[in-house]
Amino acid sequence: MDRSAPVDVAALAAGRGVTRLCHLTPFRNLLHLASEGQGLLSLRQLASQSGDYDQQDLERLDGHPNHICCSIQYPNAWYLRNRKLRATPIQRLFPDWVCLTIAPKHLWSSGTRVCVRNAAALGGTLIEDISPGSFQALYASSIIGAGGRTYRRSANRIAACTTDDQGEVLVHRRIPLADVHAVIVTSDSDAKRFQAALDQIGADTSSLGWAVAPALFNANALSASVASGTPPTETPWTPA
To answer: What pLDDT score does 4 carry?
Structure first.
């Protein structure tokens, strides 16, 4: 990636209204990353750590175990649906997931890579280093995605959202907790329960915002909202 690329990508992202990256993770992982204070770590970084962390993609078919899977503006709810369908018995005992919103600067940081569709497709061969060209490719007028389906970009589609709902950003190695801006959950009751659990382990979450947005966890609802140009409702939540 040449020296001008980060500046160019930042400008392109701002022009599209990109304000964040998103990362989906089981709530039990939030307990781990918040209590340890290390933030989000790649699979390779986690291998040297201790703690109750539920790594979701041990196979890493994308071939990038030293990267963290993210998406632009909204979470990859299709991935979440797939993970829930394939959940192990242990994972079914802890079914809660959260969406973490992340500072957009990681999109153009050194080592970031992107893919116009799910990064595991075709063994990760579609993944590219971030650059103005690879960023713009995420917003192509049409992209061949899962199952050979062609995804076409409509005029109404939210500008910040990639053409394929599963367009992916791979962030290198680590995302500090300070760059995790908010935790999005499905309900007020979940927010209260999760905040209480974090308080119980003494995690410092004073820098984290909270929001309730059930549509972000529903693949069909989120896809329809993005395609129609209607941002899903996100209701801020404040601990009592």
So the answer is: 57
Phi, psi dihedral angles at 62 (to 5 degrees): -80, -10
Determine the 3-state secondary structure of 34 from DSSP. helix
Instruction: Find the distance separating the first CA and the last CA of the chain, reported in whole Å.
Output: 46
Quote the domain boundaries for residue 41.
Answer: 5-236
Mean pLDDT of 101-118: 96
pLDDT band at 31, cuts 50/70/90?
A: confident
Cα-Cα-Cα-Cα dihedral sign, residues 31, 34, 35, 38: positive
Q: By C-alpha distance, which of 118, 122, 162 is closest to 142? A: 162
In angstroms, the CA 229 to CA 119 distance is 25
Q: Distance between alpha carbon 116 and the CA centroid of its chain, in Å?
A: 14
pTM: 0.91
Torsion of CA 208, 213, 22, 161, to 10 degrees: -140
Tally the domains of the chain: 1
pLDDT for 2 equals: 52
Rounded CA-CA distance 207/51 in Å is 23
The residue with greater pLDDT, 166 or 203, is: 166
DSSP 22: E
User: 169 near 5, Cβ under 8 Å?
Assistant: no
The pLDDT assigned to 156 comes to 98
Among 54, 58, 57, CA closest to 29: 54
Decide if 54 contacts 29 (C-beta within 8 A).
yes
